[in-house]
Target: Small, acid-soluble spore protein, alpha/beta type
Amino acid sequence: MNSGPQEYAQYLNNAKYEVANELGIQLNKGYNGDITSRDAGRIGGQIGGKIGGNMVKKMIEFAESNMVNNGGRL
Model:
């Protein structure tokens, strides 16, 4: 698997929707102007916040998976 910047960006985008779902926040693809700024901040991944830990966890899982698939290289 060749994972470059585009694949990583897509992974992070997908993770954003997964985490929003885990937090019970309805996040739509496209327009989301109707969500509260508080929910947007939670989805945005404030460092040290609930979602920040989830994003770090998912990024580590992504890196570990790619290292296994790429002989120890990211």
